[in-house]
Every structure is written in C-alpha cells, then in structure tokens.
Amino acid sequence: MSSSFKSNDHAVQSIDAEGNFPISVEDMESAAKQAMPAPAFSYIASGAGGEDTARKNTDAFKKYSIIPRLLNDVSNLDTSITMLGRIYPNPFLLAPIGVLKLADEQGDLAVARAAANSNVPFIQSTVSSYSIENIAQAASGSSKWFQLYWAKDEEISFNMVKRAEDAGYEAIVLTIDTITLGYREKDLYHRFSPLAQGYGQGNFESDPVFLSKLEEIHSRTIVESIVDNINYPALDWEHVKELKRRTSLPILLKGILHPEDALRAIRYGVDGIIVSNHGGRQLDGVISSIDALPEIVKVVDGQIPILFDSGVRRGIDALKVLAFGADAVLLGRPYVYSLAAGGEKGVERFLANFLQDFQTSMMLSGVKNIEELRQMKIVNM
Ligand SMILES: Cc1cc2nc3c(=O)[nH]c(=O)nc-3n(C[C@H](O)[C@H](O)[C@H](O)COP(=O)(O)O)c2cc1C
Ligand SMILES: O=C(O)C(=O)c1ccccc1
To answer: Which residue, judged by its Cα, is nearest atom 27 of ligand 1?
Structure first.
C-alpha cells in the first residue's frame, strides 16, 4: 500500500525492511508524491493546459478490448522483436525524460543502470542531468539511444550527435513536438523551471562546442543559453534532411500524430517514427496517442517501424498498442515515479513487475510471440 512508503531522506529507503515496493503505477505515483517537493512532483505528473489530453491518454486505453485466442501452447514465450536491424529482447524502451535529478540524485545514471540490468534500452534526453559519456560509462555494453532537441545553434546539436555516436548509441530520436515548451499551468503557478535550476545541463556543461559558444556571448549563463537554444520554433523538414546528412545512425521522429506526417517522414528517409503527444505535456486538446495509432499504422503499412508512447501504465496497455500493429512501446512517467520512490532498485522493481504483467497478459491472450500479438483482434467496445 502506498501509505507505507512515506517521505524518505533517501529514496532507496522506500523499499522497506520487508522488501516491499508499490506494485501498481498508481501506488508508485503516491509514493513519488510523498518523496518529492510538491512543485517537482507536479512538474513530472502534470500535463499542459486543462490536462484533458494527459487524462485522455490513459482513459482512451480503457475503451479498447482484446479478443483472446485460446489453446495455443504458450509455455515458451518469445517477447523479442527485430527492429532497425537489431534484435531487442523486449518490445520496450525507456522514453527520453529530462531533468531526472528532480526524482533522485543519481538521476539518469540510476535509470540507465536499471534499464541495462533489465534488458530494456534507455533513451537519453538532450536535457539529461548527466552527460552522454557519464551514462555510457555507468551502463556500458547496454543498448542506448539519444534524443535530440535541435539547438538554435546547430553546431551544438551536431556535436552532441557525434558524442552519442562515439559513445556507441544506436539511434537518434529527434523530438519534433517541443519546438517551444507547452503552456503548463501548474508549473507557471509554482514558478517552477527545472532547467533554470540546473537539473538539465549534463550534456551542455560537458560540451566543448557549447562551452566555446558560451564564451563568445559573455552575458549569458549556461542555463539561459540552454533555454534559448532548445526553444526552436523554426524547426522544419529541411532540418530532418540536414540531420540525415550529419549522422549514419538511424533517425526516428518523436511526436507524430497525423498520418500525413507519418507518410512525409517516410518520404524524407526517416528510419522510424514515435507516435506520441509527449504525455499530454505539450498541446492540450490533441488526440490521445492510442486513438491516433490505428490510422498511422494503416498508412505506414510496414514501411518503417512505429514506436509509441503516452499513457501506457500496465502490461495490457502495451498489449493493445502492439495489437494495433505498433513495433515497440516507450515507458514514461511510471519509471520516473519508481525512481523517486526507490532509486535504481525501484526502477528495477518496476521494470520486473511490468515485464511480468506483460508476459502474463500475453499468455492469457493466447499469443506466444510478438508477431502473433500484432495480429491479435482488438475492438473499440
Ligand atoms: C518529466 C518529463 C520530462 C520529459 N522530458 C522529455 C525530454 O527531455 N525529451 C523528450 O523527447 N520527451 C520528454 N518527455 C516526454 C516523454 O518522452 C514521453 O513522451 C511521455 O512521458 C509519455 O507519456 P507518459 O509518461 O504519460 O506515458 C518528458 C516527460 C516527462 C514526464
Ligand atoms: O518537460 C518536458 O516534457 C520536456 O520535454 C522538457 C523540456 C525541456 C527541459 C526539460 C524537460
């Protein structure tokens, strides 16, 4: 029960003496709320505007149902997928989430280690609390991707992409829905900006290109310069072309909601898309991610991988995403709550529970591998 996970001096203590940890995401969220100052918790949990889209993301899952097949010997489950020329043991990745030090002093380092120990790739944010090199070292040998917020001064972006390549990252995720930060009423009320407080500068304070530019503009602090750089409303399809010229890594676009944009991504030679509304944190009033998915799957027609996030809370949600024909699922807020509630061990617990929930759901749906799962019957009733 969440009530037994009271505020803690250090997050790891919220796994109590008996080794208990919250099971449901709802209880993890309560534990995280108790472990963090109110503005920080609210930053993570809330959405933009009236939070209608954030609410819809989770609600919309409930209206879809799976129709299971039975008597299909599911004693040997295979949860692996092949994507972008690699085999991944699970159809899950950890969504890029910035400023993770808000939840735990070890931030991304703890998450990257837990992800590595759980065989789940970690997507590192541009505005992570620790640097690409720190994280590569903390979780060496594991699968990692890099998420890019295009910088106004593009030499900074290209250098970060190069650093990710050098550190062995496997793909670049260009986030296209955050050309300016969403209008987040709760953060405005709390006057809370984690970037301004220095939680998101791991990749900048370690970047020689960024630092040399900073010296050119003496009046700017690191923080002012980061904020100025990642606000980039000029982002356009031409930048996608340019990014393709600059890296040999696969490029995925994160934040696709319109089928025409999915098709355009294919025309521009993009390697994959992530159907996402940023967890309802950007434009309130946009379609829920799961409602956007089926039409996109239809037009993309298997040409490139389709990944998905926003609203996945349980194994059955992930099952529905894959049943609609997506290739992989990104987990977001739940792992941040588990980090705040229990540090690195908390994230490991959450991932173990989530994978168990997912595998149980697969078995009870009568599918033994992800290809069978993607053919499963899903209805809106
Ligand atoms: C606190 C927080 C910070 C985030 N930071 C980033 C980021 O730096 N880059 C990015 O592409 N998405 C970021 N996201 C969005 C996530 O990648 C993902 O799209 C979203 O969390 C999915 O919704 P869900 O958490 O409700 O499942 C952030 C989300 C949260 C909650
Ligand atoms: O809060 C977010 O959703 C996000 O993407 C972000 C953007 C800038 C800094 C930190 C997080």
So the answer is: 310
Top mutation candidate among 56, 232, 281 for ligand 1, by most atoms within 8 Å of CB: 281
ipTM: 0.99
d(CA 272, CA 5): 40
Give the CA count within 13 Å in the CB-facing half-sphere of 8: 23
Collapsing DSSP to helix, strand or coil, 22 comes out as coil
> Alpha carbon of 334 to those of 23, 24, 197, 330, 351: distances in Å?
11, 9, 23, 11, 9
- Examine the pLDDT at 12 and tell me if it is beyond 80: no
**Confidence class for position 6, pLDDT limits 50, 70, 90:** very low
Domain range for 151:
2-379
Q: Model-level pTM?
A: 0.96
pLDDT tens digit sequence for 207-258: 999 999 988 876 789 999 999 999 999 999 999 999 999 999 999 999 999 9
- Total number of residues shown for the chain: 381
- Measure 145 CA to ligand 2 centroid, in angstroms: 17
Does ligand 1 lie within 6 Å of residue 297's CB atom? no
CATH of residue 18: 3.20.20.70
Q: Is 278 a catalytic residue?
A: yes
CB of 83 closer than 8 Å to CB of 322:
no
- DSSP tag of 352: H
**CA distance linking residue 102 with residue 339, whole number of Å:** 10
d(CA 364, CA 70): 8
Q: How many domains does the chain have?
A: 1
* H helix or E strand, kind and range, residue 269: none
Distance 331 CA to ligand 1 centre (A): 9
The Cα–Cα gap between 256 and 61 comes to: 18
How many CB atoms are closer than 10 A to CB 303? Answer: 11
- The CA–CA distances, whole Å, from 124 to 173, 269, 303 equal 9, 23, 26
Ligand 1 proximity of 254 Cβ (cutoff 6 Å): yes
281 ligand 2 Cβ < 6 A: yes
If one residue of 100, 178, 195, 336 were mutated to test the ligand 2 pocket, choosing by the most ligand atoms within 8 A of its CB, it would be 178
pLDDT of 104 higher than 70 = yes
